Amino acid sequence: MRDIERGKSNPQANSPIEFPHKSNGFAATADVPVMDMEMRQKLRMIKDVPLYGLNMRLISAAKRRSAQGGGPSSSASLAHLLSASGTAMAGMLLHSMPKVLIEGIVRRTLGVQLYLPPAHEMALPNPVYPDDGPGTYVAVMAVSGRLGRFLTRDELGSLCDRITRYIEAFEAWQDCPDPARMTVPQRELLLFAKNVDRTYWPAAAGKEPLFLTPGRLPKVRCLLAMFQTWRAAASGSKPISQAPQYVGCAARSIAARSKSHTPPLANPDANYTWWLTMSRLRHMRLVPDVLLIAATRNWEPQQLPIGEILPGGTTDKIAKEPRDWPQDREAVLERCSYLRDNLRESNESMEHRAEVLDSIPALSRDLYDLMGEIHGLEAEARELPDPRSLEDERAQVEEFPQIAKAQLYLDFLKACKGILGDGRDGLSQTGPGDNS
User: Fold this and answer.
1) Residue 2, CA atoms < 13 Å, CB-side half-sphere
2) How far is CA 297 from the centre of its chain?
3) Percent of the chain with pLDDT over 70
4) How confident is the model at residue 5 (pLDDT cuts 50, 70, 90)?
5) Could you tell me if 386 and 404 are in contact, meaning their C-beta atoms sit under 8 angstroms apart?
6) Mean pLDDT of 231-246
7) Handedness of CA 294, 97, 126, 35 (dihedral sign)
8) Is 394 exposed, middle or buried (0-12, 13-18, 19+ CB in 10 A)?
9) Can you say whether the dihedral through the CA atoms of 209, 211, 214, 217 is positive or negative?
């Protein structure tokens, strides 16, 4: 992970960033224009509930993805993840991440957070963890010179147009694989795709689009739909603070594994949606700025497959060679306080929750007794004279303090019954422990 120069002077790119905030329900802003319901729910959970709540939500999401056929590809990894020990291990890894990092992953704003002044509440530690061992990383695709920002509204439109033409070029090649028999528009589409491919892969022959196959087409269409959503939400001429990101796992070295997202392109068959987007940016005469963040560090070999729980995560193959696990454990448990601080917060919240649950039987008994007292006092109060039965109807209730007090008391009892119930079901009929 390279060092980031925080606070560089660039009037447009370094202008104050308006992040979605809890006070307005994490609504979208001009800088962060895409905030769907799931993103807002996750951010509310991160702010309001210790991380054990988010951990259970992510486990449930992994189960749903697996049931829908979109989960981890390894059945052994999935079984480990959804086991009791795997769930606990995933919770430990999640607690080892600073909350500001998790929030950035959800919002897709990690790029700009890296460039914020250290005193800013959204600033990321840099580095979060050393990248010389196994763990989870996040690759962020920003544009060079924009301090972590991505594209403007117009540039997003141009990106969508180029991806659309690339898909059309692939479909033209499918319809007619022989260039000699292609129509002029088909040949123009194929030439466009070749020029795009050669931005990072000069050896592209131009016979077929480099980054597309029939099996990849649905995912590329999803990528196009995502950028179309971003364009529709963006406004003005300022680059948005959200950027494409890829969450991956490294079995041996985060530094080595994460380099597959930075030039030069070594394997056009790997990370094809990432490199397809990178190529489009270069074709637009923009220079991508790939930012790499070590998000977690593994300190036990059993943790290696668990990275798939993170949104969009993929898993590298499990390392076979021995590792210096004590050194990795030291990197997480001794050099950084994220794990300790987050576990303490979750523990305190769970203890408070246990105390509340333990107090429910006693509160139920007290409520039952209170309802009995209210009914008894209500019967006594009704035996007092009603001020409306006075012979002198012109007399004011205030002239009879005891009667006025009794009337107020009756009104109070009615209000209590309105809150607690009228006593004709539930508590008033059956006492604590009465199962008859």
Assistant:
1) 12
2) 19
3) 65
4) low
5) no
6) 95
7) positive
8) exposed
9) negative
pLDDT of residue 79: 56
pLDDT mean over 10-30? 81
DSSP assignment of 326-352: HHHHHHHHTS--HHHHHHHHHHHHHHH
The answer to whether the CB of 114 falls within 8 A of the CB of 2 is no
Inter-residue contact 381 to 410 (CB < 8 Å)? yes
Model confidence pLDDT, tens digit, residues 323-343: 454 555 555 555 566 666 776
Enter the pTM of the model: 0.68
User: Which of the 8 DSSP states describes residue 3?
Assistant: -
CB atoms within 10 A of CB 409: 15
For the beta sheet containing 135-143, the strands, ordered from the edge strand earlier in sequence to the opposite edge, are 245-250, 135-143, 288-297
Distance between CA atoms of residues 45 and 354, nearest Å: 19
Peptide bond into 264 cis (omega under 30): yes
Closest to 88 in 3D by CA, of 303, 248, 299, 251:
303
Q: Output the six-digit token pair for 171.
A: 């479909």
DSSP state of 145: T
